[in-house]
Amino acid sequence: MRATAKIFWILGVFFLIVAIAYGFITGRYEPLGVETVGFPAMLALAALGLMIAMVLSLTARKHEIEAMDDLDGEVAAEAGVQGSFSPYSWAPLWAAVGAALCFLGVAAGWWIFAFGVIFAIYGVLSWVLEYSTGQHAH
């Protein structure tokens, strides 16, 4: 986790430097001033990288050294269960269809966006509640 935090610190600082340079160059050479989409997007990218780096650094302080941070560690130290996955779940498909329709709806028509929201809500709710047995399960 410490190596991942360092990578995100480097990425965050890099994108911040690039965003400042981009804002300076577009502000100086563009007739309308600083570009209104790219500059804030790069600043947001830098902020996201720095936020992830901060969370990973704080988490690494709280926990002991993991196998990936041990310089003498073996690959077998990371063996074991990595997560719980549903191999026959249809929920990710419906969530992806909903996201695709939402993106298409922004470009083609807002009525498509409404169908995308319906599919996305159904997909996300079924994905989240997939293993829920309910309050009164026996």
Automatic annotation (TrEMBL):
Broad enzyme group: translocase
Compartments it resides in: Cell membrane
Coiled coil (UniProt feature): none
Record-linked Pfam families: Cyt_c_ox_IV
Transmembrane segments: 7-25, 37-58, 93-122
A single GO BP: electron transport chain
Cellular component aspect of the GO annotation: plasma membrane
EC number(s) from the headed UniProt entry: 7.1.1.9
Catalytic activity: 4 Fe(II)-[cytochrome c] + O2 + 8 H(+)(in) = 4 Fe(III)-[cytochrome c] + 2 H2O + 4 H(+)(out)
Keyword 4Fe-4S annotated: no
Keywords: Cell membrane, Membrane, Translocase, Transmembrane, Transmembrane helix
Predominant location: membrane
GO MF assignments: cytochrome-c oxidase activity
Topology of this chain in the membrane: Multi-pass membrane protein
Family label: Belongs to the cytochrome c oxidase bacterial subunit CtaF family.
Record text on subunit structure and interactions: Associates with subunits I, II and III to form cytochrome c oxidase.
Purpose: Part of cytochrome c oxidase, its function is unknown.
Protein name: Cytochrome c oxidase polypeptide 4
